[in-house]
Amino acid sequence: MRRGWVVWMGCALALATLAAPALADRDLTEDELRDEMAQNRALAKYVERNGMPDLASARFLSDVPPWDDHEVALYYLDKRQEIGFARAYVLGRPDVDLERYRRPLTDEQVAALAARARQRPLDSPPADRVAPRGGALGPAERSEESARRAEDAAMRVERAADAAENAADRAEAVTSRIEQSFHQSLRK
After folding, report:
1. What is the DSSP letter of 127?
2. Where are the extended beta strands (E) located within 38-173?
3. DSSP H or E run through 27
4. Helix (H, G, I), strand (E, B) or coil at 67
5. 133: three-class secondary structure by DSSP
6. Fewest CB within a 10 Å sphere: which of 54, 88, 138, 186?
7. pLDDT tens per residue across span 12-25
């Protein structure tokens, strides 16, 4: 009996040791953050209004419904603020995007996060968009950068229009189902 209990505890400890790194915080790259923003509308709107954070991380949230398996935390060091975003499932689809919490950061937390942010800054331009050695961009580079920003803005508007159209389609489907069920209830 005792041997079975010891084996069971040994297996439980081994599994916990293997699962611990998977549950730890993981810093996100800019591309990973943009992927998360594409999935979570609340996160995307917050970053659009307030700019890129100094650091972003993903952490394990829950393995049971209605929550998604992870949340995204944004760190704004100059504001001394941490904001967490997550998604919840409704009827099997991750339809609810929300801000879960907003916390102030202590001086110790800001110092530790600043060290992590220096290793991988989110707002640094990609290598192909770095200014020449003189530091200033020439007219051609400025116009290319302006065209890129305009194209990005047009893509954001297009995504917003697509999202609005999808929301209208879902609302129309829901009202249609409600109307049908109302008419069926009148027939009975």
Report:
1. G
2. 55-60, 70-76, 81-90, 93-104
3. strand 26-27
4. strand
5. coil
6. 186
7. 555 544 444 444 67
Structure tokens given for 133: 């050695």
Residue 143: name the closest of 155, 151, 154 by CA.
Answer: 151
pLDDT, tens digit, 9 for 90 and up, residues 83-130? 999 988 887 776 788 888 999 999 999 998 888 888 766 655 444 444
Give residue for tokens 């916390």: 103
| 87 three-state secondary structure | strand
Q: What's at 119, amino acid-wise?
A: Q
CA count, 13 A, side-chain hemisphere, 1: 0
CA–CA distances in Å: residue 132 to residues 120, 121, 128, 176, 184: 21, 20, 10, 58, 70
**Rounded (10°) angle between helices 30-39 and 41-50:** 120
CA distances from 158 to 10, 82, 182 (A): 54, 30, 36
Helix (H, G, I), strand (E, B) or coil at 179: helix
pTM of this prediction?
Answer: 0.53
User: Alpha carbon of 73 to those of 40, 46, 87, 113: distances in Å?
Assistant: 12, 12, 12, 12
Question: Is cis: bond before 126, omega within 30 of 0?
Answer: no
- Please identify which residue in the block is written with the tokens 């879902």: 170
Which amino acid does the sequence have at 112?
Answer: A
